[in-house]
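Researcher: Go.
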Amino acid sequence: MKVVSVLPEAASLRTERGGPSSSGKRTSGVWLKAVTPYGLTSPAIVIIAALALAPAVYGVWLGFTNWQFLRSTSPHWEGVAAYRAVLTSGAFWSAFGHTWFWTIGTVIIEVGVGLPLGLLLSRPTKVSGVMTSLLVLPWLTPFVVVSYAWLYLLGTGGPLHAMLQSLGIVGQTSPLASTRLALPVMTVISGWKGLPFMTIALLAARRSIDDSMYEAAEVDGANKLQRFRLVTLPLLRNVLIVMSVVLGVLAFYSFDLVWLLTGGGPGSSSTISGVLIYEQFFLNGAPGQAAAMGVSLFVILLFVSTISLSITRVNRRGA
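Model: Structure:
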């Protein structure tokens, strides 16, 4: 009788102390806890895959078809013919060069103006809050409204055109009608449009820096320029790189601003890659080459972005 009464107690004791039953329950609980988030987010993942991943895969496949509307009614696999045509096209490389000028110029303006402006607005003054609110307006304004506003300002007889003409910078016609000035002028407009995003990000990053670091640097004898170079800039460096990559990607794939302002003209002097892809697809009826252009640009941009973010990670580890 003693043996019978002891066995249940031993079994319950093993269970309480983490025996086989307890271990199985813990394992199933851990597994359920790990799988539950994926189950809850799976509907959103399926929708994102259907709306983003599926068109991307179709675009990659379409780039291997060299499909043209006037030649065939449906795409047919032709291998790398479209990519060969794209990579040997002078129009593609000309637009590619314009795109890099546009992208780098846009980011330089956003960083060059956004950094000092963000540092200035980070100082608590009576007007800093109001100025920060007003600064967001260009970013929130739709591209159509921005484009038509600049067309008026820079058009013949427009107030900004008259001012530039009085300074001898432009002639009788709008700078947007000049093969020499159209792309640089639109690059300035693009930088102005993205400037608020960069400024707000740098403003938030600057306010996150502890003032005690500046006080310690001042005690060590550092002047304002040295405090900026030794404290502010290193702590803002990662934000600067990440924001430059993000805004650079947005600028690299720009289409609407250039199309609304000049349509890629005069001639092809301001045709960037986004405009060229649009022309290939909708005007020339060559979706195969348009897809090949898009995939080629994606690969190039992915390579550049990976290098930039890798530099950021290395700097963060070194810090």
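Model: Residues 1-18 have pLDDT under 50 and may be disordered.
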